[in-house]
Amino acid sequence: AWYRSGSLLTRLKFDGAPTASHFTFSKPPTALAPVDAETLIGVGSSPTIAELVAKPPSSSLIKAAWRWLRPVEPKEMQEGVVDLSTGKRGTLHIRRTCFDDSRRQASKVWVAPTSTLCAVADNKGRVLLVDLRSGRVVRLFKGVRDAQCAWLQLDDGEESLYLAILAPQRKQIRVWRCRFGGCAAAFSVALENASLVQAPDATAFLAALRGDSLVLEPVQPDLERCRALADKERQLARLAGAQARCRAALQRADAKNDPVAARKAMKEAVKEESEENVLGLCVRTFTSSQCLIAVLETSRDERAKALISCEKARDLVTRDFSGSAQSSIDDPRLLEARAWLALTTTAEQTHPLVEQALAMLLKRDAAPAGLVESVNSEDG
């Protein structure tokens, strides 16, 4: 247990007989919250958020010898009373600065029951979510001046953390799935001058005085809604992982000019339902025409099928006529590209793929003079 009095912080340990240790600050923070028996999170200004470590006092042989020669007689204390005067004195040091903004002053901090995250309220009407493992701010909630927070642990298919934020001016509580989840619940606060209270079992209550009575209302989001939100986010996370794996495989295939590997990676992308996202990356960044053609042929997207003939024409042109000023506008390979453009463009409407096709035709190396003339001609 920790107790603060001004610039002195007292730690009580209850391992056997209660013992006290005292720690001083070089610059007292505005608010403190313990993470474990040795670590605290301090918030304020310069730095805004910092991780503090309790450093015990340094012992010397002279002091040890003096205590051995002049032992202190233990005082008679009542049961349940701890003598704070006998506690050792140490100091609190900043282990690392998590966030520092000279224009921002943090006022409150709440550490999650898992000791992996903490929420920090500042004077700008924002709540910052800090990852205690990396020491970085990972999320920001805006528009919650004088915010109060509490942590919830709910079973949405797995034990997950939720952050309840009370905005007193709006008289509203919103419950967010952490770290990056959406809003799982929103409540209007009917109680006047209510406070959000964190319970030891990772539940939260709204507390308010009504006459001589203390009124407590539990903050309980709908578990079915939380499960639906969690399932959606897990699906998105799985999709993002599949996309990242497919992107890496496609980029390796393009670097090695390996159409077989590109085709295999695209089949995996189709299987993982990440085809659309991966296809755009291939069209924009691939340097190997053979790999891009393999990807387009493997894709089930109609837009990809429409680009195959254009990419084949571009491959033929850039392979034989790149930088050549002697190429004829009647060359069959150029006519194939022109034919595709003519089929996909009408007087009433320009096909959305035309601009992308032109970019593909001209995206690499110097454009052949014949191709430029055909694009700039009346038919083009």
Describe the structure.
The strands form 4 sheets. A 7-stranded mixed β-sheet has the order 1-2-3-7-6-5-4, with no helix packed on it. A 4-stranded antiparallel β-sheet has the order 8-9-10-11, with no helix packed on it. A 4-stranded antiparallel β-sheet has the order 12-13-14-15. It is an alpha+beta fold and 380 residues long. 33% of the residues lie in helices and 30% in strands.
* First and last CA, distance: 79 Å
According to DSSP, the number of beta strands is 18
Structural class label: alpha+beta
Radius of gyration: 33 Å
Q: pLDDT under 50 segments (min length 5)?
A: 321-327, 364-368
Mean pLDDT equals 78
Describe the global form: elongated
Fraction in helix: 25-40%
Please give the order of strands in the largest beta sheet: 1-2-3-7-6-5-4
Order of helix and strand elements from N to C terminus: EEEEEEHEEEEEEEEEEEEHHHHHHHH
Q: How large is the share of residues in beta strands? A: 25-35%
Q: Largest beta sheet, briefly?
A: 7 strands, mixed
Tally of contiguous helical segments: 9
Helix and strand arrangement:
Blueprint: E1 2-5, E2 8-13, E3 19-24, E4 31-34, E5 39-43, E6 49-55, H1 61-69, E7 88-99, E8 106-111, E9 117-122, E10 127-131, E11 136-141, E12 148-155, E13 159-167, E14 172-177, E15 183-188, E16 195-198, E17 204-210, E18 213-218, H2 223-256, H3 259-271, H4 275-285, H5 289-298, H6 302-320, H7 332-343, H8 353-362, H9 369-376
Parallel strand pairs: 3-7
Antiparallel strand pairs: 1-2, 2-3, 4-5, 5-6, 6-7, 8-9, 9-10, 10-11, 12-13, 13-14, 14-15, 16-17, 17-18
Helix pairs in contact: 2-3, 2-4, 3-5, 5-6, 6-7, 6-8
